[in-house]
Amino acid sequence: MATVELTFTALPAHVRTARLVATAIARRTGVAEAILDEVRLAVGEACSRAVEAHRLHCPGEPVRIELRDDAGRFEVTVTDSAPSEDVAPRAPETNGGLIPEMDNLGIAVIAGLADDVEVLPGPKGMRIRMSWPASPDGVAAL
Amino acid sequence: MDLKLDHHSEDNLTIVDVEGEIDVYTAPRLRELLIDLVNKGNFHLLVNMEKVDFLDSTGLGVLVGGLKRVRAHDGSLELVCTQERILKIFRITGLTKVFGIYASVEEAKEAHGRDK
User: Fold this and answer.
1) What is the mean pLDDT of residues B68-79?
2) For residue B102, is pLDDT > 60?
3) Which InterPro entries match (chain B) (predicted)?
């Protein structure tokens, strides 16, 4: 099992970096090209949700992302440190307001993209684990 | 890639050209533009997403917010998009039923003309 771990300050600008790293490792792990867009979007959604939660509750704490190549699966776990009861992701609206009907849209998108998703909310943070099939040998074997 | 925004008016329609990535970092700029256009009396918007490389739920939220604003003035907000990877997120969230989505600016303009 190969693991890459990344922690980043809870800033929106870093979400793109996390997406790029996840996509690069997914490709190397052997995730099919046709699925890479789904990985990129799902990881971006999970990281955006975590960043928003941290900005509300603990802006100084980093968001953590783990990327694993595990027996023919590419697994990504995004972990935040914000209590998850009241941090449903919301799309920003004018003057810092929010669009209530967009609550949980990010998680709904992840559920529609990843083949296997586990969302574990908790008082000390939320963990979103998702995985996709990957070639057992990865592209490194090509 | 960053987000590039441009807009121009044709008849009664304001076309917003979007290029790049719409995510939690860049979506506020699109939101500000849509709000500004509506505040200046542009109530029929066509967002051309043909050069959008990435769209997430934050971007969807901004588009829904724009739609709510123009509808408050009996206006419209429609999209031009043919990229499967972008259309997929609209399908997953059921928003294909909320937005008019066209294959080209010309097609959208024709439809808009018929509806006037």
Assistant:
1) 97
2) yes
3) Anti-sigma_ant, STAS_dom, STAS_dom_sf
Looking only at the bridges linking them, the beta strands covering A73-79 and A127-133 are antiparallel
Cβ within 8 Å of residue B76, ≥6 positions away: B43, B44, B45, B70, B100, B112, B115
Q: In what order do the strands lie in the sheet with B44-55?
A: B4-10, B13-22, B44-55, B76-80, B101-102
Query: For the whole prediction, is pTM greater than 0.90?
Result: no
Amino acid at B96: T
Overall size of chain A counted in residues: 142
Summarised one tens digit per residue, pLDDT across range B44-68 is 999 999 999 999 999 999 999 999 9
pLDDT at A108 > cutoff 80? yes
Dmax over CA atoms of chain A, in Å, equals 51
Domains with residue ranges and CATH for chain B: 1-113 (3.30.750.24)
A53 interfacial to chain B (CB closer than 8 Å): no
Plot region of B53 (φ>0 → left; ψ -120 to 50 → alpha; else → beta) = alpha
Chain B residues near residue A101 by CB distance under 8 angstroms: 64
Test mutation, A80, A102, A104, A110, chain B, max B CBs within 10 A: A102
